[in-house]
Amino acid sequence: MTKMKKKFTRGEATTFISRKQALKRLQLSLNDFRRLCILKGVYPQEPVNRRRVNKGSSTPKVYYHLKDIQFLGHERVMQKLRDIKAHLKKAKRAKERGEMHTVDRLQRNFPAYTLDHIIRERYPAFEDAVRDLDDCLCLCFLFSRLPKERGVPVEQIRLSARLTVQFLHWVIAARALRKVFVSIKGYYFEADVNGVSVVWSVPHQLGLHDPADVDFKILRTFNEFYTTMLGFVNYRLYSSLGLAYPPALANEVDPSDYCQTGEAHEEFMASLNQPLLSRRGGEAEGNPAEPDDFPDEEAEGAEAASAARRKARAQQRLFNGCRFFLNRETPRQILCFVIRSCGGEVSWSPLSGPGSRYPESDQRVTHQIVDRPLGDSRLSGRAYVQPQWVFDCVNSGSLLPTGDYAPGLPPPPHLSPFAAYSADDADGGDEAAQLPYSATRSAPPDPVELRRPSAAAELEEEDDDEAEDAAKREAAAADAAQVGKQQKKQKKPSVVAEGTQRRTQDAKQAAAEERRLREMMLPKKHKQLYKKMVFSRKRQARESAQLAEKKQKRQRTA
Amino acid sequence: LFQADPAKPAAKRLRLSRNKKKTWRKLSRDVDNLLPEQTTAELIRRRSGGFFIDVGEPGQRRRQSRQQQQQAKVEGSGSSATSRILSGLRCHESLPSGAASAPVAESKRQKKFNSRPLDRLVKHAAAADQDKAAGPQTMDLWGSDPKPESSADTDIKDLVLHQMRCTRQAPVKRRFRTGTSSAPACPVPQPGASYNPSLADHEAMLAAATQSELVKESRAKRLHGQMERHFPGTAGAAAALAAANDKEMAAGLFESDSEGEGDDIVDKEVDDSTPSEPPPVAKSDQPAGRTSSKQNAEVRRQRAQAAELKRRKRQSVDLDRLTELSRQVGRSLAAGDRQRQARLAKRRERASGTKRLGRHRFEEPEAEFKLADELAPSLRQLRPEGDLFVDAVKSYQRRSMLEPRSRTAWRRKYPHKRYRKKGLEASADGEAK
Lengths: 558, 433
Known about the structure:
heterodimer; A: alpha/beta; four-stranded parallel β-sheet
């Protein structure tokens, strides 16, 4: 007779382990376990059947793979965490006893650990690290803006600030910036790092909120890991451009007006307006990585890829030859970063901070960025624009007319470069003038206009058979309507003046009415055929629109 | 190694456990028994001929024996802890020349005792060296600099080659702990969340926000309706109670109340003789009682018979409609296939979506939005919405890197008592603060 199979001795019950069991196995406290998991990249799992794993009960527990916990057990940082715990116990005892010399000695000899081996293990190749750079940058930028009173060690905040500034310097040197989006939450940037699109966010200059449900201990551990990683990534990026790392300023700076000599390096680096020293010792040449040309690509993605490359090249040279002057009320660091990443030169008033290169009265200044209504005090030979002009130019890849962005006037809408507006990504997302919010208050948008971007072309074809002709036309119109309904963010075709808009509106309305009349005049047997054609055409159009959307989504995230 | 006087033969050691106080007292009577297992503290006290095993930083104050100082001068200062230990172990050099100066032939047991602490100390020192080094050994983690292959790399390569030779298989690829979630790490907000959005984008965003609010409202309404159905009058009870409370607390505050007081009171005949009855319980439509098992069996038998008859009849009919049946089978297979595809797609979605970890479900945060009159006319006048820290935490939760947690108030079960341990009390009194 065969042995009775015992329940819960094989399968999922043996591959998962609950958190409490893991703590017992590793002999760690919950905080230390959390830290270790974050550092090693071990995440909780969800078993398919919780009952099987929990031996019949379905209480919600946090489960980990048993192999992951076994893997954690071999980590030498774990021993360090235990050493730290023992160390703290000793320090507490000494403090209670009043043995301050012991406390000092223990503080001096606090156990330290490094995370290099963990980073090497988690990211065996540089490309793996670049793929995780989004998270890293977001958190480091957040921590760099923290006030000192938040309970986070000052050293960690300063380290994050230093590393993020170094990364921004690299983006400037490599001219890698591709998209900027100013939202109500913060600034969102996208850069091209070794062919991978990296997206990160920077909070606005104003004070941070005090979120109640954010566990800063956990975020600190993440930040600890990410700062170490960012240091290594920065080294690799700098060496790929031939820049010295740790970065050094190419020119001598005079910190007398701003800070002490010891802080000069940090302050002037943070101004983002100083050239960096190259490895060989001179000033870095600034040879941005030009996107490669692959002429013999397959036709499918070739067009979009070549358009993207053209746009990237245009963005890299966008502000070549332009000299900017930033007023005090503008977000200085962000604008300096964006302008310099596209080849421009920037300066500001010496009273605003270190890093100013030329005064406001400099004759060579071509653009002055202002954000408040100007009086009559304008200098000739330069254009006065709002900060949004800079961001919109970068997103579109070309210099937009400055008249629309004059100070005091409501500027055109700031469109998101991350959203897929219909069929206009290739020529530059901002060409089509979607009517601004203020302007449309008076003239509401035309619904017909919204639904028919390019249906007119399809109506030109004429066929012999009247029924098929009518059917095709109707189908084309119906397709357009269907496509228009699916794509929620539909762009209007570019319309210059109100008068022409009204004229095109009337013409299109007349055409639509004529089509409806012809539809009504179809004989009964032809109507059936027409209906079937319309239905199949609609379905095909719907499917192709869905596929196109998926593709765009994939291209955006990839 | 730890024998202070090599001339004196080692006394027979008493193997006593040292984790109880009484055994310590026994041990302390016979000092010789302590010798092989001396602590470094004991060694430090014995200055004559003893040496100090130092595992700390070079900057630390330490008492060096004259021999060690001389040796340090000879070797040069700044040597690492490891070499310091190893160089200081030439104990036989400090002894007077003669037969006794030669190292005593160590028994196996002595060797084991002597080697063990040293290994541990050396390892500890080496680890301390590594960790105290300023910064990482090299910033070039991924080997971009052209450098000669380190021994570590060649060792690993050799190991892999050896494994391949023996097993005739490629080594199993390591499973890296990458998240399977397809959600982006830094989700960009919708176009309507731009600080200066276009009309269409803004309207779309507001429409989405309105939809979510309507959904919330409908849920609340549904809950309210359910409460009313099962417990009539209680759904509004909280509101009624609050209103009554407000009225009571505000009584007498306004003059108009006191004027009409006399007229409004109506003496009702309150009947206190019989206690008020609770409202009748709503009887649900349940069957009166269970039918007997015999009746059930009879019913079941009849039903089975009827089913059997029906089946036979159906069989004969089915023979006549084979083509249609085959078509039906085809359709059901196709449906099964579609269901399978749907199941696989759901499974894939589940794998790439947010996992259910722990007690709380992940809730998508509400998208921040600004109403039309809150839109800033310029970047300078923009008041930010939302918090990027919360965004970061939510992003980790969405990708199942962190499990959703809720803040609970930490309440002490028993009152908190502070006390000082007996030993500490005594020492605190003696020590000057």
